[in-house]
Amino acid sequence: MDTTKTGLLKKRYYIKGKDRSFYFTYREAQCLSYLAKGNSSKQIGKILELSPRTVQSYLDKIKNKFNCNTRSELIQKAIEYNFLTIESPI
Fold first, then answer.
1. What are 32-41's pLDDT values in tens digits?
2. Nearest to 62 by CA among 89, 35, 26, 24
């Protein structure tokens, strides 16, 4: 395996919120980013060369960390904690 890719996969993201803090793996961050862009688990899987079930597993882990039940709630919380930003279409 390419050492550069291995290094990226081991990278962790830290988010400090007002009431709690979160750690995300690089893959979890990738899946969340692609989800926010409107991709399905199947589409994310194709992009990242993962099975849709693996993508769903990553998203479920993130939902548990944010204490969310739905994908839309997950994206909303990620924006609230400044993990994702909203880009203006203009």
1. 999 999 999 9
2. 24
